[in-house]
Write a sequence for this structure.
């Protein structure tokens, strides 16, 4: 989704997740409740922390989240799969 579409869903959202996979070179901002998402490509040698920090700041700058939004960062590469 585009930022304008996300804003129209009722920003600021009360909770969000930043999901990052360095292996797959992608990060995703998930705005909790309606679960709209926005994907971001990762650059070379980018850490989960750097990526999450940049996405969270950009989401705040655009008004998608605010200081009351609970944000969790999920490192998808660290999750165990069966």
């Amino acid at each position: 989704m585009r930022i304008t579409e996300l804003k129209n869903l009722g920003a600021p959202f009360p909770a969000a997740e930043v999901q990052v996979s360095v292996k797959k070179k992608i990060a995703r901002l998930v705005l909790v409740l309606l679960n709209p998402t926005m994907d971001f490509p990762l650059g070379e040698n980018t850490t989960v922390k750097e990526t999450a920090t940049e996405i969270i700041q950009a989401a705040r700058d655009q008004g998608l989240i605010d200081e009351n939004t609970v944000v969790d960062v999920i490192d998808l590469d660290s999750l165990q799969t069966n």
Summary: Residues 24 and 42 are 9 Å apart (CA to CA). The first helix runs from residue 3 to 8. The radius of gyration is 12 Å. The chain has one domain: 3-77.
